[in-house]
Amino acid sequence: MQSTQTEAFTCLLAQVGREDTGKVGGKNASLGEMIRHLTETGIRVPGGFATTADAYWHFLDHNNIRHGITEKLGQWSVEGVSLETVGYAIRRLIGKGEFPQDLADEIRRAYRQLADETGQENPAVAVRSSATAEDLPEASFAGQQESFLNIVGEKALLAACRHCFASLFTDRAIAYRDKHGFEHMKVALSVGVQQMVHADTGSAGVMFSADTESGFPDVVLINANWGLGETVVQGSIDPDEYMVFKPLLDDVSCKPIISRTLGGKEKKLIYSPRKSKPTQLVNTSEWERQSPVLSDDDVLLLSRWAVIVEKHYGCPMDMEWAKDGESGEMFIVQARPETVQSQLGADTFKTYTLKSNGELLVSGLGIGSAIATGKVCKLASISEIDKFVEGSVLVTGKTDPDWVPIIMKAAAIITDHGGRTSHAAIIARELGLPAIVGVGDAQRKLTNDLEITVSCAEGDKGSVYAGIADYESEAIALDDIPVTQTEVMLNLGNPAAALKWWKLPADGIGLVRMEFIISNLIKIHPLALLHPERVSRGEARQIETLTTAWKDKPAYFIDTLAFGLARIAASRHPHPVIVRMSDFKTNEYAQLLGGAAFEPAEENPMLGWRGASRYYSEEYRAGFALECKAVKKAREVAGMKNIVVMIPFCRTPEEADLVLEEMAAAGLRRGVEGLQVYVMAEVPSNIILAEEFAKRFDGFSIGSNDLTQLVLGVDRDSNLLSGLFDDRHEAVRRSIASLITTAHQNKRPVGICGQAPSDYPDFARFLVESGIDSISVNPDSFVAVKRQVAKAESDLL
What we know:
Blueprint: E1 10-12, H1 21-37, E2 48-51, H2 53-62, H3 66-77, H4 83-95, H5 101-118, E3 125-131, E4 147-151, H6 154-166, H7 171-180, E5 189-195, E6 203-208, E7 219-226, H8 230-234, E8 240-245, E9 257-261, E10 267-271, E11 279-283, H9 286-290, H10 296-313, E12 317-323, E13 330-337, E14 348-356, E15 360-367, E16 371-378, E17 393-396, H11 404-407, E18 412-415, H12 423-431, E19 435-437, H13 442-445, E20 451-458, E21 461-466, E22 470-477, E23 487-492, H14 495-498, E24 509-513, H15 514-522, H16 526-530, H17 537-546, H18 553-570, E25 577-580, H19 586-589, H20 612-615, H21 621-637, E26 643-647, H22 653-665, E27 677-681, H23 684-688, H24 690-696, E28 699-702, H25 704-712, H26 730-745, E29 750-752, H27 756-759, H28 761-769, E30 774-777, H29 782-796
Parallel strand pairs: 16-17, 17-18, 18-19, 23-24, 23-30, 24-25, 25-26, 26-27, 27-28, 28-29, 29-30
Antiparallel strand pairs: 1-2, 2-5, 3-4, 3-5, 6-7, 6-12, 7-8, 8-9, 10-11, 12-13, 14-22, 15-19, 15-21, 16-20, 20-21
């Protein structure tokens, strides 16, 4: 069957745009859109050509198989024949088809033109499927059809095109179209043929122009691995992850990278020397595993491109990138609308909270923010699909698009491999399922039929607990949260959870607990990094494992703390984020790796060597300098000038002077680069000498627990005295009211970051009546406290 059409079956990518989705599919239309409109911005997109929807229908009609496909689809939807049987039969029908001569000639002609443009006799190309119902705002169809890399020569190209046509009827594609209501025989397949980027000797990965978990719009998230990008997309490795704060990308005075996490990167995909197998998976070198894939300049370039692409399309974008290992040039090789967060309502906020849980079994990267329960169903491979029990928690090594029919029946997903942009993560978000990826040992530790709880409600760490946990969910209408004159802020310590709360209309962060980052992310006593010779051999080995990627071991402390603080600060930029310098007690410091060698045993650590007294002491000043350098890096390198430093447990004005001198020596000088320094008001001397402290600090933040302890003389941790501990006691109230009055007389703001306003509405009312400037609470208490403050303010009118 010959066609009379001329040049109807192929077109250059540079000749199409977004309006041509019906002609060349969403993927190819988007590539053409970027080539036509974004090349002038500096964005590089590999050129090539595409077959048209007419080419696909021409192929089917030439082989007389339209009716056969429709008939077999009916066997699945009406007669109950299995999806696997029907999908295989349709793919075989297409796979046995022959190319019409005119179509084959046109594809060859386009390939030869590409050869002329590249100066190569048989250029290597990427052959990608692009369906006409694809990359839509409401459905991505990500990974539903096949792609083939490093295809060389006309014969191999035609074979790859035929495989692409057939992949329109993979089991996952059939199931996905059925779920989203697309008619199978009204969807066509266009084949995109792009010049290959030599990422086999370079790197590649995925990039989003918004946070994939929280929807926070002000960041770019990049995942990266050595070699071709399929390992990142498929989730077969644990990639590097970078996060960049978009609003500061144009500020040449800073590098707004707010997070950098090195993945395991155990393998990479490269070109294969065998013609029968274009690519091969190989082990990475030790250097590659320990080194970041991207330089800071690479990360910032990609992020700027992401902003340009997002602005052009007018929505958050999901992109794939590749870096040529020979030329060093960066390319965008795909771009599609992000289809999960963009579909969520901006005016609502849903939270999940664990009320109780069993033993922690395994953990990994949490995808989404939901909680699910169910029985474990482990599958070693897709061949075990028949063993899956609907409503179970799928546990496996990794998923690819073939797993979609199973995932659609799962309560949650747990994989041992993959990052935030892996297939399992993308599909879980789109289906609204909680997922935990990159666990490492889930298949070994979780047994079939074990009842578990999958929680992604605790930041970006996902946790699997034994048993069916008690949890609750709440949908909050943001329009119902009142506006208040008194600022209501958040208490945070976990960088992973910071972006989760971005939709809450908080006025900043009133307390960042540095201790959380040190104990949970750094895990090492700062002096152990400065004086490794004093650390036990066993702990030295653990420290070496944690710091392998850092030749300069103290830099590990500075970098990890700086990135953690920057990420938290970015979540509220430009509102103030008050960072309390470390406030461990000696017994808590001693529990850090290497800490026992540097910490004395104290009878009463609560009232001992803590807070300000450590910072200027000969025994710890070098450790405090590392803290200061981390804050300086977060403020001046990452650009988070909204960070305010707070000094805890500062007993006297003279002690304040010594601390400020130490800070200045480490590069943090009050007033320089807009740096403000607050004092934690938790010692009675802070109240009594408030006027003196006001001369040295820019503000006060009341720590009501410690203040109550010292005003009433009650050990806050004593069960015997629990009846006496009351931060609403008149003595405590008078102390707070006195501080507010004196601070305001000296033009200094006062906030509070204790638990009392969350627990006691009458205490929140007292604070408002006393004229406090801000109240900082845990995120789960924010809405309730905001309403209490609004009521108190209304009653005062």
